[in-house]
Amino acid sequence: MTSTIDMDVIAERLQRLIAQARLPAIEPGLHYGLPAFKVGGKAFVTVKNNETIVLSLPIDRKEQLMEMAPEIYFQTGHYVGWPSLPLRIAAISDEELERRLIEAWRYRAPKKLLATFSRI
Question: Considering the entire predicted model, what is its pTM?
Answer without folding.
Answer: 0.92
